[in-house]
Task: structure prediction
Amino acid sequence: MLTLRRTNSGNKDFINLIALLDEYLQVKDGDDHSFYAQFNKLDKVKHVIVAYENNKPVGCGAIKEYDGNTMEIKRMFVLPEVRGRKIGSKILIELENWASELHYTKCILETGKRQIEAVRLYKNSGYEIIPNYGQYRDVENSVCFEKRIGEV
Result:
């Protein structure tokens, strides 16, 4: 049974999952990893979801305020051995619901073009590609997305 738990960046299971995510991204991103890593510090992340399957942490994601109307999706990860079960989609929906409850109207995110599974997840979840924003503006490997949330 899958359970989604709202927590914060101090959660030990989240920290352990993020260590695995960073290992994965170091391989995927290669030489670009250190550039991206500087924008993924946990100290500014207050809203975290950890997914548990039979009480084992199997995935995570977070939101962080980008501006007064926008939350940025951060640190999405699902263990490789449980991928394909829609866990990432469920985490993403819960993050969007949480952002909406906090009265934000839009979610944005950045992922790497090499993260094919992530790009597919976001497109399938209703996210639209936008021009790269902020620190990703001139980064060729980045692809940025947005989605309006909380609208009837």
